Amino acid sequence: MAYDPRYPGPRDSSILTLQEHHRSQTILDGGESRHLRLRRSDADFWRTEDISRRVLDYLRYLGFYGVYRIGRIQMDVGLITALLERWRPETHTFHLPFGEATITLQDVSILTGLPVDGDPVTGVDPTLTILEWQALCLRLLGFEPDAHFFDHSRLRIECLDDRYRHFHITDDAPEEMVQQYVRGQVLRLLGGVLLPDTSSNKMKLMFLPLLEDLDFARRLSWGSAVLACLYRAMCRGSYADQSEIGGYLILLQIWVWERMPTISPLRRQLLEMPSEQHDPNVPFRLDGPLGYR
């Protein structure tokens, strides 16, 4: 059709074929934009006290330390909803006044520090019984969750929150206990922060077997899995009939802040600065990814 500046919708429907079901169509038809419910379940994780140096070393080794350093960020529901109104599942890009833009693996690596090279995170959702899941948790996490915490192959996150709320790893703790604790914390990160679904209180246990061998887990491209999960969540959230969204939305928000600095907030805390003992001939590096800024 001929371009009409009064109509801000797609000019060519042969490319953006899903416009009829898109959130933006509701606005074009005169309807109201409803804020999405942003699903996450990570509040208790950030209340974990005194994480041991040995645990932090494992988080660095596995590639999750950057996410830990970024911490919990207050989500801007209006900003996320506005972005989803401009996300197109046909092209996997945001359609903005100045052109198209999207989050890339390079963004994931620089902003979060998650590994984007290595083996893909793949597999099937194991069809285990609750007794089999309990036995696996006992072996890999060091405790056996009660049966009522399970929903088929999902586990309620509060089970791990209760387990680790006052659980401390000492310097003389056995290595097996440290690794079990690390698996539990990484599982909390995956289920509540990086790969959350829309339940807000359950995590998929399909990732637990991938953490059995931490040397193997280190070789996985977790950043690729996080980005793929976020793409899928944004594609679903762009439909007009959707009212909630999961995925690592913190990545989306800090990506927008980095790419559009005019809408980014002022820093609420000072960054670490070089000490007087720092060698001026050695470049100073922040202890965390760019998103930690």
Low-confidence stretches: none
Helix content: 25-40%
Distance between the termini: 46 Å
Tell me the number of helical segments per DSSP (H or I, 4 or more residues long): 11
Structure description:
With 293 residues, the chain is mainly alpha-helical. It has one domain. The chain is 38% helix and 7% strand. It has eleven helices and eight strands. The mean pLDDT is 86.
Topology:
Layout: H1 23-28, E1 37-38, H2 53-62, H3 65-70, H4 77-84, E2 87-88, E3 93-96, E4 99-101, H5 105-112, H6 130-141, E5 150-151, E6 154-156, H7 157-164, H8 175-194, E7 202-204, H9 214-218, H10 222-237, E8 244-245, H11 249-259
Parallel strand pairs: 1-8
Antiparallel strand pairs: 2-3, 3-4, 5-6, 6-7
Looking at this protein, list some descriptive labels.
globular, 293 residues, 11 helices, three-stranded antiparallel β-sheet, mainly alpha
Write a short abstract of this structure.
This protein has 293 residues and is mainly α. The chain is 38% helix and 7% strand.
